Amino acid sequence: MENISIKARAKINLTLEVLGRRNDGYHEVAGIIQTIDLHDTLSVQPSDDTTLECDRPELVSSDNLVLRAAALLREQTGCDKGARMVLRKVIPVSAGLGGGSSDAAAALTGLNLLWELGLSKRELANMAAELGSDVPFFLYGGTAMVQGRGQRVRPLPPAGLKWVVVLSPAIDVPDKTATLYARLSPTDFSPGDLTRKLEARIRGSGDVPPDLLFNAFDDVARDAFPGLDDYWKTFLALGAREVHLAGSGPSLYAPVSGREQGAALALTLQDRHGWESHLASLWEPPEDQEA
User: Fold this and answer.
1) Is residue 44 within 8 Å of 110, Cβ to Cβ?
2) In the Cβ-directed half-sphere of 222, how many Cα atoms lie within 13 Å?
3) Predicted confidence band at 29 (pLDDT cuts at 50, 70, 90)?
4) Buried-state track 79-90, b at ≥16 Cβ within 10 A, e below 16
5) Residue 11 annotated in active site
6) How far apart (Å, rounded) are the C-alpha atoms in residues 250 and 283?
7) Contact of 8 with 36, CB cutoff 8 Å
8) Rounded CA gap, 199 and 209, in Å?
9) Are strands 152-156 and 82-88 parallel, antiparallel or unpaired?
10) DSSP string over 52-95
11) Is the pLDDT reported for residue 287 higher than 80?
12) In the annotation, is 230 catalytic?
């Protein structure tokens, strides 16, 4: 194979509940996550060395999850082949949309094909968990229940949402995930009931009632991210009915009833306020995707 191109899709959290603190220092979570058709593109082709190029040069370092995924795959399989990898970024960086994790999953998928390793998705998922809690999910995409630290993934039928508008504020908070968890108190913990209720609705009728959308960080994020409350209020004032944090933020998302309404809302956020926003459809993998 001379060149392989993989779409690395973003995700949003339909629910994210924090159940409590674990003995290992992490937090136990339960949530339902969903891929959307906002994506980076990773291309891989044969090369003597393993290299990464990106249209965001500041992202190219030894810590980049794409390079780490390639190194892990070589280490685990004994493969001595190389690859030239080219990453085109569209997903906002450090925005709570899972871009880095999705890029890593795309690297595992693409290099598995390029190097003709023949690994199943299940085998790749076992490796992916070493790179980050979200990476195994992105090997499959679609709608899924996540538990544990987020690394235990259970696929669900497609959720009955069509379109969302994603708003990504220009806010940077160092160590944002640790900062958000540090602001949670035991009163913010929940037993996972909303996630189980939404799972049952998706398995039954497929619909996603707005009152079941939830993110444990919704409230604390407004204090942790300077200015986030202004973005939130403006989003609502322009017609968004429900606004929630995407993952650990600072991106926000709002379900919309149709493409036209969503396009108008995203355009207003861009033109009137100069804010980065995207209209995205929910994305589901092909039904015949390999397990």
Assistant:
1) yes
2) 11
3) very high
4) bebbbbbbbebe
5) yes
6) 22
7) no
8) 11
9) unpaired
10) EEESSGGG-STT-HHHHHHHHHHHHH----EEEEEEE--SPTTS
11) no
12) no
Among all chains, which residue has been given the structure tokens 């995203």?
A: 266
Tell me how far the alpha carbon of residue 291 is from its chain's centroid. 20
Distance CA 246, CA 231 (A): 14
The residues, ordered by sequence, that sit 6+ positions from 212 with a Cβ below 8 Å of its Cβ are: 14, 15, 194, 197, 198, 201
User: Which tens digit of pLDDT belongs to each residue from 7-28?
Assistant: 999 999 999 999 988 888 778 8
Half-sphere exposure of 186 (CA within 13 A, CB side): 1
One-letter amino acid of 72: L
**In sequence order, what DSSP letters do the residues of 212-230 get, joined into one string?**
G-EETTHHHHHHHSTTHHH
Cis peptide preceding 250, ω within 30 of 0: yes
Whole-number pLDDT of residue 67? 97
Q: Which of 11, 40, 103, 176 is catalytic?
A: 11
Question: Are residues 137 and 143 in contact, defined by beta-carbon separation less than 8 angstroms?
Answer: no
The answer to whether residues 158 and 204 touch, using CB atoms and an 8 Å cutoff, is: no
Tell me phi and psi for residue 188, to 5 degrees: -85, -10
Q: Which among 139, 215, 217 has a CA at the least distance from the CA of 185?
A: 217
pLDDT of residue 68: 97
Q: Which of 40, 103, 121, 134 is catalytic?
A: 134
Do residues 280 and 36 make contact, with C-beta atoms less than 8 angstroms apart?
A: yes
Distance of alpha carbon 107 from alpha carbon 67, whole angstroms? 8
Half-sphere exposure of 91 (CA within 13 A, CB side): 29
Helix (H) or strand (E) holding 139: helix 135-140
Model pLDDT for residues 117-152, shown as the tens digit of each residue: 999 999 999 999 999 988 999 999 999 999 987 778
